[in-house]
C-alpha cells in the first residue's frame, strides 16, 4: 500500500472545496424547496431473516445532492477513463462500472468512519468515494506521479484509508475482507468491513436482495447490514441487482452476449442517476436548472483532472522500489537478477496506518 502526505492534504483540500461548492450552491438556491423527502423502494427479498430493511427511505436535501454529485462524478470519470484507454494513454487493464454507481454511492452513504471496504478490480468509483480526489484516480490510471499509488498500481490497484483496494484475483478480496473484519473486532474499533464481489465470484450464505439501481435502497440495506453485524448477529450477505453498461473490460465491447437495444432500454428506464434525478426534482429538493449547474461543475472538474493526468510526469526509476513493504526490515530489494540490489525507499506511512 502506498501513500503520501501530499495526497492526504490534497484530499482534505478537495473535501473542503466540495463542502464550499455545496454550501455556496445551497445558499445561492432559492430556499423554497423541500428540505427532505421520503421514497418507497422495491420490497427487499429476504432469506433466513425474520425482518428486513424498511422500504421507506427518507433522504435530506444535502445528502441527496451529495449522492447525486458522487454518482455523476463517477459516471464522468468512467467515461473519461474509457476515452483515455482508447487514446492508448491508459495501458493494461481497465474495468469500468458505468450503470452501477448506485451500489457504491448507496453503500458509502451508510458507512461510518470506522468501517472499511475491499473490492475486486472495478475500483475507480470506490477510490474516489473513499477520499482520493479525481486527479488521484485519473493520474493513477495514466500511471503518473499524482496517482494515489504514484502510478504504480494502475486501474486495479488503488487504495486509501480504510479502502483495501482493488484486487485482481476473482474472489480473493472475500477472505481478505474477513481478515479486515477480524482486525476490527480484535482492535475493538466497532467497524465492519464490506467485502464486495460480482456474480462471477458468488457463493451462498445468508442473503437478501436489493435493487442495485436505487441508491436509497442500497443505503437502506447497507444500514440494515451494518446494524446486523454490529449487534452481534454475525456476517451477512447482501445481493444487489445491478446492470453495467460497459462490457467486462476495455477489451470486451459487451455486445456479444446482449443486444445494444437491451443496454439502451436499461439506460432509458432504470438508470440510477436519471431515476434519482427525477426523485430529487419531483420532491422539490432541487430544480432542473440547479442540477444542470451542478452537472456543469462536475464536467469541468473531471475534464480538468483528466487533462492534468495526461500532462503529469511519471515517477523516476529510483521510486520503483519505494514502499514495497510498510516496515522494511532490509534496506535493499532484489532487482530482476539476484546481484542487482535496488534501494528500498520509504515515502511515508502506509495509508491504512495513518
Ligand atoms: C482466480 C481468477 N480466475 C479467473 C480470473 C479471470 N477473470 C477476471 S474477471 C472475471 C469475471 C468475474 O466476474 P464477476 O465476479 O461477476 O465480476 P464483474 O467483472 O462482473 O464485476 C474472471 C473470470 C481471475 N482474475 N482470477
Ligand atoms: Mg458480474
UniProtKB/TrEMBL annotation:
Dehydrogenase E1 component domain: residues covered: 69-209
Gene3D superfamilies: 3.40.50.970
GO BP annotation list: pyruvate decarboxylation to acetyl-CoA
Domain of life: Eukaryota
Keyword Glycosyltransferase: no
MF GO annotations: pyruvate dehydrogenase (acetyl-transferring) activity
InterPro entries assigned to the protein according to its UniProt record, in alphabetical order: DH_E1, PDH_E1_Alpha_Subunit, THDP-binding
Cofactor or coenzyme needed: thiamine diphosphate
Pfam families linked to this entry: E1_dh (PF00676)
PANTHER family: PYRUVATE DEHYDROGENASE E1 COMPONENT SUBUNIT ALPHA, PYRUVATE DEHYDROGENASE E1 COMPONENT, ALPHA SUBUNIT BACTERIAL AND ORGANELLAR
Protein name in the entry: Dehydrogenase E1 component domain-containing protein
Species whose genome carries this gene: Ladona fulva (Scarce chaser dragonfly)
